[in-house]
Amino acid sequence: MADTAATPDMLSWTCPAPLRDRPRVVMGHGGGGALSAELVEQIFLPALGGTARAALTDSAAVELGGARLAFSTDSFVVRPLFFPGGSIGDLAVNGTVNDLAMSGARPAYLSCGVILEEGVELDTVVEVAAAIGAAARTAGVRVVTGDTKVVEAGHGDGVYLNTAGIGLIPPGVDLRPERVVPGDVVIVSGAIGLHGVAILSERENLRFGTDIESDCAALGGLVEAMLAVTPDLHVLRDPTRGGLAASLNEIAVGSGTGIVVRERSVPVPPPVASACAMLGLDPMYVANEGKLVAFVPREHAEAVLAAMRGHERGAEAVIIGEVVEEHPGMVVARTALGGTRVVDMPLGEQLPRIC
């Protein structure tokens, strides 16, 4: 239930859906949904010489000196800087490590760019730096280069971070939406919605009857355990901005297939379900920072699921659906009442600045 000591501003919890022909950037452009995709496809891809939407994954697979590398970069502007279960420092490391891991790569090296606002307390900077170092050691990566900038007071929000990373893709691993085919099994590694609700509860001073912590964690070890079963996984994705719904829609469009999800099988913890019911949110659209969704050939699904459950980051892994020939490019959920509903790509983000 809500904390009665302070009256939350309910209007600030959502990012209004803007008209797509607006001449200015709106918060929805940063939400990881349809507006984000349009921003990239209509402005940045043409300017940089790209054309294929299907190639827009969280990290790029490139060849260098005969080796296949994954290369990724990400920026972090989360508010507040510290939240239950993590901080902006944890997010910066784990977010980039996970982007590399979703290409099947073994993350190795990171860069870190730090933008500080004039007036931020040095104790805060010390705490953020310590979180970066601790998260990197836990993930088994090294921060080997970086940069620091300071902007005038009022032109930032304390601390912003940018991390880039590289990792080595093992031979025989080829993870991309184009490999998804009808019959593939969809597996999610655990409970969804924890990160987004944890940020919301801290930002708006809400309490939902129990403490909710972010699931922020590095997933490289879990991916290695899955690939040890078979390198023939089809695609992996960490459902961050836009939640599970955005990731499933991106894969459906990229593969040209349909996806059917059993709504009852999607692992939504009771505190997240209660919070979303109270606030009018759909858990499938709420951000995660320590979960993955995997598309696995049916013949390997049970073995991969067992390997996931044997790892601490996948102990609650569960099969939630399958890939079908019908309704290509569309995600459909079968409800507990026996009906179906379309799970659309979100336009923006239900809760901006969650990473």
TrEMBL record:
Protein name: Hydrogenase expression/formation protein HypE
UniProt-listed Gene3D superfamilies: PurM-like C-terminal domain (3.90.650.10), PurM-like, N-terminal domain (3.30.1330.10)
Family: Belongs to the HypE family.
Single GO biological process annotation from the record: protein maturation
Residue span, PurM-like C-terminal domain: 182-327
Protein source organism: Streptomyces cadmiisoli
Stored NCBIfam families: hypE
Species classification: Bacteria, Bacillati, Actinomycetota, Actinomycetes, Kitasatosporales
One of the Pfam families matching this protein, by short name: AIRS
Residue ranges annotated for the PurM-like N-terminal domain, each copy included: 58-169
